[in-house]
Amino acid sequence: MQNNTDPTPPDAVPSSVATELSQLDDESLRAVLDYGQTLLNTRIEAGPNEEIVSIEDHGTHTTVIKCEDCADGCDECPHGPYLYHVRSEEHINGEENFHWVYIGEVVDECTS
User: Fold this and answer.
1) Which controlled-vocabulary keywords does the entry list (predicted)?
2) Are 75 and 95 in contact (CB under 8 A)?
């Protein structure tokens, strides 16, 4: 149900989507937010020489555990697993990317 206090949607949100969202009840709107976060999480990808072990959404951030290989010939590869907090950021120019914060090494070992 739309009212006079509804915020103005960002330009990137199609008007049909904004209209549909404004008509949802609280429970459905929260489900849409969860689904949107899940979609964003599916866009987190491993970089070169990395393997993502797990991705878990926590609302304000996503935890990602990954293992990493370094240079060829390293007898200790893969390294990790390492825990990161990841969140999507929109920059002033409108571009979005993921901000990765290293938390530390996880107890389990990576396997090659």
Assistant:
1) Plasmid
2) no
